[in-house]
Write a structure and sequence with these properties.
Helix content is 65%, strand content 0%. It is an all-alpha fold and 194 residues long. It folds into 2 domains: 132 residues; 54 residues, no CATH class. The structure holds fe (ii) ion (FE2) (2 copies).
C-alpha cells in the first residue's frame, strides 16, 4: 500500500501499522536466507516479538475503534482478522517454546510467514482502504488498559502504545479482560467525519 494515499489525519496510525508489516516481511525473508542456526533462531524470536506487539496494538486499540465507529462496515473483516491473529498466535507460541533442534521449527516459521503474508494482504487491500474511504481522524487518546473517561482522555502518541504493549495486558488491568470491558481506543473527539 502506498502511504501517499493516506489522509494526513490517518497517517500516523496507518503508517505505524504499515511499517510493522514491512518489518515482519523483511524478517521472514532474512530467516529464509540465513544459514546459521543460532542466527535463524534469533530472527524467528524477533519476528515473534514484533508480531505479538503489533497484534496487541491492533486488537487493543485499532480494531475496537473501527468496530465501535462502524460495526456494519468493519465487523466481518475484523472478525476474520481476529481469527487469523489467533492462528498466528498459536504458531508464535510454539515457535517461542522451540528451537532449531526441533525438526518442525523451520516449517513453523515458514507457515507463520505465509499466514502473515495473507493477513497483511487482507489488511492492506481491504481493511485499510475502507478506513481511508471514511476519512476519519485516527488519533490515539489513551494508554492501553486505561478506563475510558473523557476527562482523562488527553491525546498521546500512538508510538507510546507500543511501549505500553510490551507490558503484559494482565499487568495493566485491574480485572482480567472480558468482552464487556470498555475498549481503550482512539480519540472519540476525532470521531468519524460525516
Ligand atoms: Fe496488521
Ligand atoms: Fe492484523
Amino acid at each position: 500500500m502506498n502511504k501517499s494515499q493516506i489522509p494526513a489525519a490517518q497517517k500516523e496510525v496507518l503508517s505505524l501499522l504499515l511499517d510493522d508489516h514491512k518489518k515482519a516481511k523483511k524478517l521472514f525473508k532474512e530467516f529464509e536466507a540465513e544459514k546459521d542456526d543460532a542466527a535463524k533462531e534469533k530472527i524467528a524470536q524477533e519476528v515473534c516479538t514484533e508480531l505479538t506487539v503489533h497484534a496487541a496494538i491492533e486488537e487493543e486499540i485499532f480494531y475496537p475503534f473501527l468496530r465501535d465507529q462502524k460495526p456494519e462496515l468493519f465487523g466481518d473483516l475484523l472478525n476474520e482478522a481476529l481469527v487469523e491473529h489467533a492462528s498466528a498466535k498459536d504458531l508464535i507460541a510454539q515457535i517461542q517454546a522451540a528451537s532449531m533442534e526441533d525438526d518442525l521449527y523451520e516449517a513453523k516459521v515458514t507457515v507463520l510467514g505465509e499466514y502473515i503474508a495473507h493477513h497483511v494482504t487482507e489488511e492492506e487491500d481491504e481493511l485499510f482502504p475502507k478506513v481511508i474511504s471514511q476519512k476519519t481522524g485516527l488519533i490515539c487518546a489513551r494508554r492501553p488498559g486505561e478506563v475510558p473517561s473523557r476527562a482523562s482522555a488527553g491525546p498521546f502518541h500512538i508510538s507510546e502504545a507500543r511501549t505500553a504493549m510490551t507490558t503484559p495486558i494482565s499487568a495493566q488491568l485491574p480485572t482480567p479482560p472480558s468482552p464487556d470491558r470498555p475498549h481503550h481506543g482512539l480519540n472519540e473527539a476525532a470521531a468519524w467525519a460525516g
